[in-house]
Amino acid sequence: MSQLDQLSTTSPAGQPILSSAIRALNRLTELGEPVDAGLLEAVAALEGRPASELAAELRRVLAPYLLLEFGVGPRGPETLKQLGGPARLIQGGWRSFLISADNPGGVESGFVVDGGGSMVTWASGMVTRPYLPDRVEHASTIRDEWRYELRLDGPGTLSGRELEFAVLSIYSRDAGRLSAPIAIARSAGPTLDGERRGDSWEQTQLRRLSTSGVARTEIEAEAVPARDVVLDVRDSDGRTCMASIIVRDQLGRVYPSRGLRLAPDMFFQDQVYRASGESIPLPAGGYDVTAWRGPEYRPVTTRFEVDPADSAPLTLRLDRWVDPAARGYYSGDPHIHGGGCSHYSQPTEGVTPETMIRHVRGEAIWVSSVLTWGPCYYYQKQFFTGRSISPPATLEFPSHQQAQGVTWQPQATDHDSESVLRYDVEISGFPSSHSGHLILLGLTDQDYPGTSVLEDWPSWNLPVHQWARAQGALTGFAHCGLGMGTASRELPNFDLPPFASIGSNELIVDVPHDAADFIAGAEFGVAAELNVWYHLLNTGFRTMMLGETDFPCVSDERPGIGRTYVSLPAPPTGDQALEAWIDGLRTRASYFGDGRSHAFDLAVDGDPAREQRRAEPSRVRLTATLAALLPERRPEPTVAEFDYDLAPADPSVPNAGYADWDFGADSSAWHLEWARIGESRSVAVEVVINGLPVATREIIADGSEHQLAVDLDLDRSSWVALRLLPSLHTQPIFVEIGDRPIRASRRSAQWLHDCVDKLWQVKHGFIRPTEREEARAAYDRAQAVYAARRDESEVK
Prior knowledge:
20% of the residues lie in helices and 31% in strands. By secondary structure, the chain is an alpha+beta fold. The chain is elongated, with a radius of gyration of 30 Å.
């Protein structure tokens, strides 16, 4: 136990000023700021001093660590001054200091520290405002202002003591002699006097700084320069590549600073994406650098010491544990965005293809669909070309980057051509969005006939499907589980969903019209996502399911958290890459999930064809090659219990029930970790016939391949699949026997029939009156199809 720790446990309750100083000094030590042993002795010697002497003595003893002192009047901070000489800072790094509040009147309130438009304020470790450069802001404005961040350690609180201490950390973008305004303002916490719910960050800050109780000064600083650490990034095959890289110091702080990033580096991610030959600026010190390219790789962490006098590169060798492409399976994420949600720099515009391709390459995704949607439609639609592209991963705004101190130049890599983007459309923020968000893949024309603005589009989805399908597009429903969850965890189950949100709602009407190809998910509860799919398959439809991410909306961690792997005869490259990938989806083997488990070469009696025929009932053999990877030990969760199939109380809330869990890079309802059997490294793979598991095999998730062979009795036309929930599900193989179509469940057909009535009840009021009659007729035709298939079903 240190002197300060011991003192903090013995200091009498009558000396709260000393307790405040002790806590602040302890925090400085924890943040890596060395506290002189002589100072510790001097503080310890103050124990027992009269209160009248203690404040003056603490100011004297702590002077080497005090940066700012503010005086508090009846309405809050009134005076503010910097103590001592210029603050000693580090370019690209953090320094921590003490600030003191002289509060003779015993005022109790909160306070905030702010520096104006050229900085970022953090509080309690949570960013309250990222640096948001406007597209029209001149680069010279960025260059000529000192860009910095302030992080107040813990909530700023005046507890009424005569003298109080807090810790302020400062991150500087720049090196050299620096000067900028700083202010400390009174705050009433999250409900500041006059603050209104829904105010923007800027409105709140203006209100705070326009009230009385604000003290201002100029802060003077001098920052020593950082070193550009050049990266040598190599894939397992030795070729150069782009990778996801997280740099943390020994206190867990992330570099480059999240708050002062410019695209392609995102403030909402810990990682940045760098290619071999590119660099990251780091001040002197020790760092843990973690690199990977998504779930097909083991994360590799390298301890690296930055010495300003040594220019040696940082060598990063990636560790790929599985290579689906080597077996002819190519990954895709059919749902990511270049604008909206977490994107900054005006979310209504978003970022460019040159930024998006960097993220996709860094996650080793072969095909990614960047979907233009409501919040960014008019800006992002300019990137639509009707073909796949693989642009160079150049800096988005070179002059702004240069002004921001970015010195690295983008570099091409050996793996660049293995990732492509295709810009298409998500029907979100459109008049028909209430009936489910559509994904339209492979459009040749992105503007619905006769429309000039989004409000002109149809107010229900079937016409949109039909228009897109006429172009040869593949169409489906995004984030399929939203609004489809019920209290039941069974799969399949026969509870009617609420249709309360934006998942695969109108799917049940559109599929009987041969107007919807797939649903996309691997984001939410398994039953909520898969139940409607299983019922459609049981009724004989060939609807597919795909894994998606909806980056950066459902998740802003990274693209490719949900993935779809498609068997293809050749890699999907060039301007027709998406079309080749879609053709494979329609006709060849595929599977989807979180990328931590894989199922290759699924076949029935050695035949991988999706459609098969048998003359009569028979015994067949299902075979596949499986691989999965879990760490040897279960990571520690952050909550006591978890049910991966939990149905959120509010189905519209993404990942409700999951957000408090953290198993590393990504946390989601679909994650191989939830499949771990006890504390072992084993997981259970299930063979599914007509939605029901008929055989289970355990495999060890150590990254090695396992051969599966299961004999099955097929006594009627059926669909057969493999699943490892909640991590993996294959597309089915459809086996028709004796020329009979698949009619596996009368109850499934009836459930779909009844869902149409429920859907109409919930959604018809959102359909324009001029379109409602046509919609009602389409709903009736869908019900008639289900009724006919129900009557054709041989099995209850």
